[in-house]
Amino acid sequence: MTSLPPQSSPQPSPPPSLSRIRIGSAPDSWGVWFPDDPQQVPWQRFLDEVAESGYEWIELGPYGYLPSEPAVLADETARRNLRVSAGTVFTGLHHGPDVWDATWAHVSDIAALTHAMGAEHLVVIPSFWRDDKTGEVLEPDTLTAEQWRHLTTQTERLGREVRERYGLKIVVHPHADTHIDSEENVTRFLDGTDSSLVSLCLDTGHYAYCGGDNVKLIETYGERIGYLHLKQVDPEILADVRANEVPFGPAVARGVMCEPPSGVPALEPVLAAAQKLDVELFAIVEQDMYPCPPDKPLPIAQRTRQFLRSCGA
Question: Bias regions of kind Pro residues — which residues (predicted)?
Fold first, then answer.
């Protein structure tokens, strides 16, 4: 009787190739929210550790945290084999044309540095309706019809000006405690703006925090997705945050944004949906954790980069 050859154990399938997704990280993942704050790590340490973690792309973070002189920043990033993917600006464009001059004064310096660093994107975050540190309510959490018109028309104006003057594309970032947050408000914003001028920076954590379905948004508005922030939410902490109407800043201090892959949304289907768009996309890791101990970010960043490699990125 001839014995059968021993059967080998099935080998695990290799992760799908996310060939169009460019992975990076940001100062936010090192607990950096402000240009200068004694609770934050020095910028040199951030650059050293983000490179040590295996990332090749970074964002500028709050303007003034990293060197704002292009030649200095170019030297510091190049010797660590890092490149800049985007700058970030904060805006209150729902207030209408009266805030344009002040907005442009803020945007122009950041756009100039972003362009000088060879990046092509400017992440636009709407202003908060309540203070992210104190929780003080600054204005109503819903917009009037007139304010919605201001928000859409002034954002289009910003997109046009930034493109014409600096060659950059704006990507608007839905964010907790702003007026562009939930599925309803995000879709209203997208439907009210010109796709040739305004794209979206989909932050997976913020959209889940506000009740949105990331994969559904990518599949429905794929042509508007211009950039990704990768982030997860702890569902148990989020439930308490929602039940007690905790402001975003204190929610972060409680750990509402958690280390992948322990939270929601699952990032594998989000990345797979983004890959199917068949366009080049940055996917920048942003784990909000301000404030945090200075030794906390590096091991999290290393584990997160390894997790994303296991996803094919």
Answer: 7-17
Helical spans, DSSP H, in 41-144: 43-52, 70-78, 100-116
> 257 pLDDT band (50/70/90 cuts)?
very high
- Which domains occur in the chain, in start order? 21-310 (3.20.20.150)
Please name which of 93, 3, 83 lies closest in space to residue 50, comparing C-alpha atoms.
83
- Separation of alpha carbons 307 and 25, rounded Å: 14
Phi-psi map region of 258: left, alpha, beta (phi>0 left; psi -120 to 50 alpha)? beta
Q: What is the chain's percent helix, strand, coil content, to nearest 5?
A: 40, 15, 40
Question: Tokens 């068949």 identify what position?
Answer: 278
Distances (CA, A) of 301 to 35, 243, 250: 21, 30, 22
Give pLDDT, residue 17. 80
26 φ/ψ sector (left φ>0, alpha ψ -120 to 50, else beta): beta
Distance between CA atoms of residues 268 and 266, nearest Å: 6
